Amino acid sequence: MSRSVTVATKLTKKEAELIERISKDYGFMNKSEAIRSAIRLYINLMTLPSRERLRVLQIVNELVAPSNASSSDLVEQVHAEEDSV
Fold first, then answer.
1. Which long-range contacts does 12-18 make (Cβ < 8 Å, 24+ apart)?
2. Which helix (DSSP H) or strand (DSSP E) does residue 51 occupy?
3. Residue 60 buriedness (CB in 10 A; 0-12 / 13-18 / 19+)
4. What is the pLDDT of residue 13?
């Protein structure tokens, strides 16, 4: 059974531009579809053990928005998430 939920958020200009670019680059029909896919990915990632989740996040990060974040930064982020749960 599927249930619809409406979510509203404010995005920075940079975030909005990134979503627009991703929508076009990856062939999403619209920004809403891209965001729905991102939410589903996030929910699925949360079910993975930390090490596997970290590896997937590294791959996604490099594909979508390459950054200067090091592996150790990402490891610290995963540990912080685990501590907050």
1. 18/64, 18/65
2. helix 50-64
3. middle
4. 92
